[in-house]
Amino acid sequence: MNDTTILIVDDEPIILATMSQILSPFYQVRAANSGHLALKIASMKPIPMLILLDITMPDMDGYSVLSKLKEAPLTQNIPVIFVTALEHIENESQGLALGAVDFITKPIIPEILLARVKTHITLKQAQDFLHNKNAYLEAEVTRRMEENQAIQNISIRALAHLAETRDPETGEHILRTQAYVQILAMHLQHHPRFSNTITDHYIGLLTKSAPLHDIGKVGIPDHILLKPGKLTNDEWVIMKTHAEIGAHAIEQAEKDIDKPVEFLSLAKQIAHWHHEKWDGSGYPDNLAGDDIPISARLMALADVFDALISKRIYKSQMPFDKARDIIIAEHSRHFDPDVTDAFQTCFSKFVDVALEHQAQSEEISPLYNHS
Predict the structure, then answer these.
(1) What is the third-level CATH fold of 5-136?
(2) SS3 content of the chain, % helix, strand, coil (to 5)
(3) Radius of gyration of the chain (CA)
(4) How far is 289 from 291, CA to CA, in rounded Å?
(5) H or E, element range at 339
(6) Which of 8, 93, 98, 324 is found 20 to 30 A from 280 (Cα to Cα)?
(7) How does pLDDT run across 160-172, given as a tens digit for each residue?
(8) pLDDT digit string, tens, across residues 328-337
């Protein structure tokens, strides 16, 4: 006898005794003489692997019992074989429609009972094995995806911080600009000009890729990057190359990957063109208007705002309200007009982000006129 549990349900004691005698040498048998008792026992551990259920019973017939079993999460997957003296095809159709897996007719023939029970026990065990295997595989896939995602995120942050080690006064700049572009993107998500591009998926990619916007600064010599005074014209030419250096570095990373990685495409856009201006006077390619990728337009505003409110080796920090006024004054010149309007609407959220990171960095101006 194995430890597989079978529940037999019938209101006739002789039928219960007969089926129990046939099945007991091979299975653990539990019995119920009513539908109500059957429902109770079916929910008790060990949960039955199979239920043999009479149709014609007083108070609650087999159809009603089966319906109740299928409604309960604990018992809905237990296969049910109807055991009945009814021979009309309508009875079988009704039972199968409710979820029964088979019918056995009375009087009970031991060989048929054992064969049908063995078949459905085997099927149930196979289904459970596959279900458990699939559940394990799904959990393993999820775990590995989360692990890969964590590694990817850590790698991005590590690369971004690598750029910041060349320019230590930028402090929490990558975290703040990452938050700023997310705020702008979420605000513009349903704007007619942006709704086709700025989806939830896009916002996730944008937020992930934003920290790489200044990765090209690793290629700028220290005497230029850390110069405390104004850059000469020649130095400024070199400084501006960080946009193309960053885009090229990301492009080289893309070539090492067999399949395109979406966030790297966005990261390359941002690194390359976040210094372009709406009126075409930016660098490195003098792009204008909608020719500038949306990702770069969002980062352009986020980057300038954070630069204005932050202390640098070559400048002091600026109060939030003054930085806001400068950004708004660049409406339709430096910045996309709708992105500028979004900034104005979300300005208090920008301030909240800056203040949140003030504890980690002393470079942010504490001055803010709420008027």
Answers:
(1) Rossmann fold (3.40.50)
(2) 60, 10, 35
(3) 35
(4) 5
(5) helix 337-345
(6) 324
(7) 666 666 665 555 8
(8) 999 999 999 9
